[in-house]
Amino acid sequence: MYEYLRGKVVHTEKETLTLEIENIGYLIYCSNPFVFDRNEEEITIYTYQYVKEDVIRLYGFPSRKERGLFEQLLQVSGIGPKGALAVLAAGAPQQVIQAIEEENEAFLVKFPGVGKKTARQMILDLKGKLQDIVGEPAGNGDLGLLQENSQSVSHSNALDEALEALRALGYSEKEISKVKPALQKEQLSADEYVRQALQKMLT
């Protein structure tokens, strides 16, 4: 398994990015691909190689801690890679851990693909096992795990990209339409639009 890859982001889509290393492009699935800065000459992405039957994929994260939480979520019955990425996409893993520790099912079921049964399973399987992975106190500092995105893209295009990323994570048009008006009032990068939308959905 690859611990991490270091290279330049040459392409970004709604759920993947392409990292070029010595003329080889690695396709990496991410919870929020726009968090990685395409203007940087070189970035480090911590990776997890997922192998199942006829599927082999690389998943990428801005920190080892987010990757660790992803790995733990995969151990929960009913949660696959797509569901685990949706949980991580808001960029606040401590909120997820707090909800698990407090057995807050109402918070957990807000994530796409997580129903009451899966939320209960998350609590049963993970309660008391996650603090060593993330460890930071709850609060806005959680967003510090994410890197700033400085793509030179129009705000209109950035919003379109963010909405596509939300759809890729499994959010419905109804859920997206509730937060879209508030997002349209802002002038943000695609990464920031995604994070703001997810934070609004989780409140």
From TrEMBL:
Pfam families for the chain: HHH_5 (PF14520), RuvA_C (PF07499), RuvA_N (PF01330)
Subcellular location: Cytoplasm
Example of a GO cellular component annotation carried by this entry: Holliday junction helicase complex
Keyword Secreted found: no
Helix-hairpin-helix DNA-binding motif class domain sequence ranges: 71-90, 106-125
Subunit structure: Homotetramer. Forms an RuvA(8)-RuvB(12)-Holliday junction (HJ) complex. HJ DNA is sandwiched between 2 RuvA tetramers; dsDNA enters through RuvA and exits via RuvB. An RuvB hexamer assembles on each DNA strand where it exits the tetramer. Each RuvB hexamer is contacted by two RuvA subunits (via domain III) on 2 adjacent RuvB subunits; this complex drives branch migration. In the full resolvosome a probable DNA-RuvA(4)-RuvB(12)-RuvC(2) complex forms which resolves the HJ.
Reported function: The RuvA-RuvB-RuvC complex processes Holliday junction (HJ) DNA during genetic recombination and DNA repair, while the RuvA-RuvB complex plays an important role in the rescue of blocked DNA replication forks via replication fork reversal (RFR). RuvA specifically binds to HJ cruciform DNA, conferring on it an open structure. The RuvB hexamer acts as an ATP-dependent pump, pulling dsDNA into and through the RuvAB complex. HJ branch migration allows RuvC to scan DNA until it finds its consensus sequence, where it cleaves and resolves the cruciform DNA.
Similarity section: Belongs to the RuvA family.
Record text about domains: Has three domains with a flexible linker between the domains II and III and assumes an 'L' shape. Domain III is highly mobile and contacts RuvB.
UniProt protein name: Holliday junction branch migration complex subunit RuvA
Lineage: Bacteria, Bacillati, Bacillota, Bacilli, Bacillales
Gene: ruvA
